[in-house]
């Protein structure tokens, strides 16, 4: 008779044939072996399903959606079928460090947490030096563990984290992914958990590796930021209408204020990427005309560009020298 798994690993997949084996292996080769891996394929049209079927491990369970329904739907299906005490999230094109679950379970036990999350290491596919800044690294925080509040999740943009959830907590509070949300569903679920009173601990080891694609970053940022603006506007509307009955009245003003600041930041970010998009395409004259026109129509874009100059210099110049192997060799040689 098999033991009940400690962790149910939830992997939604869609057309990730090049990466799914690495994701699965990273879960199956964890130092914590008493797990189940629930893969829900969202009607892939490539060889993703065939590759999954070649993994002959009884801990892997595959469900195939009848039609493409989105990652939130797939995650909800997996969670409904999960038997583990904990739910761990892994996207089909990402992977884990070998000791990730072990470390997360230890932190959860030490704090009696409902939810635990680690930092995320960004890996930019196709770049010469693909290892990018960690998600939490940009905030330059000095502590090693962090008990989150709802305002923290909003202020520090913690939606991209991939937490370990106590399954009973989700079921008792009747929390699940909102399937109508197409982008930012992770942020909403984590925020809702905190508004329900969850104890959430973040520790700063980056044991989750997220894969991104350099060639589509600009377009992706515009689309994703536009979607996040709509999501923040929707959350603000619900908060102000008190549609969230579980939100403590005394916490309502600070959560609303944090969302208003987030909306302003997202709007500025969208305007910045609008300014920069033509420049990314390589046509200097067209880019200059576009930027000038946008600055005339939207005077705030001048302030945004001025504020971005230090970070642009850091990213384009300082980081180039830090990450360039040729530069490092020259520095070592003293030339």
Write a concise keyword list for the protein shown above.
single chain, 335 residues, alpha/beta, Spore Coat Polysaccharide Biosynthesis Protein SpsA, Chain A, 2 domains, nine-stranded mixed β-sheet, 9 strands, disordered C terminus
Characterization of this structure:
Helices cover 48% and strands 17% of the residues. It is α/β, with parallel strands linked by helices and 335 residues long. Strands 1, 2, 3, 4, 5, 6, 7, 8 and 9 form a 9-stranded mixed sheet that branches. α9 runs antiparallel to α10. The longest helix has 29 residues, at 252-280. It starts with 6 loop residues before the first strand and ends with a helix.
Rg (CA only) = 22 Å
Number of domains: 2
Q: Summarize the main sheet.
A: 9 strands, mixed
User: Runs with pLDDT <50, length 5+?
Assistant: 322-335
Q: Could you name the CATH topology of the largest domain? A: Spore Coat Polysaccharide Biosynthesis Protein SpsA, Chain A
Give the arrangement of secondary structure elements.
Blueprint: E1 7-13, H1 20-28, E2 35-41, H2 48-53, E3 60-64, H3 71-81, E4 86-89, E5 95-96, H4 100-111, E6 115-125, E7 145-147, H5 150-155, E8 164-166, H6 167-172, H7 185-195, E9 200-213, H8 217-240, H9 252-280, H10 284-297, H11 300-323, H12 325-333
Parallel strand pairs: 1-2, 1-4, 2-3, 6-9
Antiparallel strand pairs: 4-8, 5-9, 6-8, 7-9
């Amino acid at each position: 008779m098999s033991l009940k798994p400690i962790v149910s690993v939830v992997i939604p997949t869609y057309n990730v044939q090049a990466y799914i084996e690495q994701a699965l292996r990273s879960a199956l080769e964890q130092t914590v072996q008493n797990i189940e891996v629930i893969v829900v394929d969202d009607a892939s049209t490539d060889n993703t399903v065939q590759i999954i079927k070649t993994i002959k491990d009884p801990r892997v369970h595959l469900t195939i959606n009848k039609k493409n329904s989105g990652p939130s739907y797939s995650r909800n299906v997996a969670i409904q079928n999960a038997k583990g005490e904990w739910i761990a999230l892994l996207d089909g094109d990402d992977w884990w460090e070998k000791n990730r679950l072990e470390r997360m379970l230890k932190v959860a036990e030490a704090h009696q947490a409902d939810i635990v999350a680690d930092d995320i290491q960004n890996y930019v596919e196709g770049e010469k030096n693909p290892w990018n800044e960690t998600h939490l690294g940009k905030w330059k925080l000095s502590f090693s563990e962090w008990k989150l509040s709802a305002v923290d999740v909003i202020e520090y943009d913690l939606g991209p984290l991939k937490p370990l959830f106590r399954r009973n907590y989700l079921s008792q509070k009747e929390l699940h992914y909102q399937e109508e949300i197409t982008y930012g569903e992770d942020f909403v679920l984590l925020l809702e958990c905190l508004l329900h009173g969850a104890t959430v601990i973040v520790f700063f080891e980056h044991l989750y590796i997220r894969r991104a694609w350099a060639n589509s970053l600009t377009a992706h940022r515009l689309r994703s930021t536009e979607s996040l603006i709509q999501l923040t506007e929707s959350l603000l509307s619900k908060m102000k209408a008190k549609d969230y009955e579980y939100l403590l009245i005394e916490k309502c003003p600070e959560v609303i204020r944090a969302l208003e600041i987030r909306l302003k930041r997202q709007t500025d970010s969208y305007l910045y990427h609008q300014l920069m998009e033509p420049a990314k395409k390589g046509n200097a004259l067209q880019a200059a005309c576009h930027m000038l026109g946008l600055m005339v129509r939207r005077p705030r874009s001048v302030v945004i560009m001025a504020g971005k100059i230090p970070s642009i210099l850091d990213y384009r110049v300082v980081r180039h020298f830090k990450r360039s192997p040729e530069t490092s060799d020259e520095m070592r040689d003293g030339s």
